[in-house]
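Supplementary Text 2. Reproducibility record for the structural model of the 297-residue chain.

All settings were left at their defaults, and a single model was retained for analysis rather than an ensemble. We include the record here because the model underlies the residue-level annotations in Supplementary Table 4.
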Amino acid sequence: MVDGFAAALRQRGNALLLDGGMSNQLESQGNDLTDALWSARLLADDPDQILRTHAAYAAAGADVAITASYQASFQGFEKAGIDRAAAEALLRRSVVLARDAGSRFVAASIGPYGAVLADGSEYRGRYGLTKRELTDFHRPRAEVLASAGPDVLAIETVPDADEAEAVLDAVAGLGVPVWLSYSTANGRTRAGQPLAEAFALARGNDQVLAVGVNCLAPEEATDAVALAAEVTGKPVVVYPNSGEGWDAEARSWTGPATFDAARVGAWVAAGARLVGGCCRVGPDQIRELALVLRTAS
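Retained model, structure tokens:
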């Protein structure tokens, strides 16, 4: 399936549709995600809820299911009393659940180090760790996820170009292609680096099939897509959040939603080949994206 994913991505005039937010759909199904493991807790406690979430997005038209492993780590599982062997099984389960739900392709999520801290630092970066420490953190779970047979590893919501470089080192040689997607604001990474410099890390890296942005305001997406395409010459991945703001201290969303499926035409015209939604974008919005993509093709 890996070769099939790469071939589908290369098809001109065709964009693959990603799913939407995992956590918001799980919450709409009645799940409490206040635990530090967030959605990853359900890999152990109630995997059927994750399967239902993937199935809801597949039914809405998503071509690609992103696994519930964003916040999953050996350190986080250990704090929850889950040993190494069980944690490896849960990481592999995340891929199996996504595969079983019916989308064409599975992207195994590798979230940033800050997500494991559960304190909002994934929106800031700059953790005070060396590149080697970050690579050593990411490599073991990337190895396990790769062994489960996803079509692509989704290095997503990366706030810091330094961490992106570390994760690319961590996944090198695993035999699975990746996409690299930054979390951005005002044309920079969350850590404040120029996006052109951040995107340039993917240029010339054959393992990176696509590069782009996610969990950013929808109104900033088109410019970011165009820049990623210009800098790297690669297909671009884009999946904004709802446009609402996240208050990490209050752990709540603020402001109005600005996600609009009508924007997808501009994203595709600018070079996007993987499009979808992130936090607070649900199956209804993915269904709208599917309709726009079908109409445009």
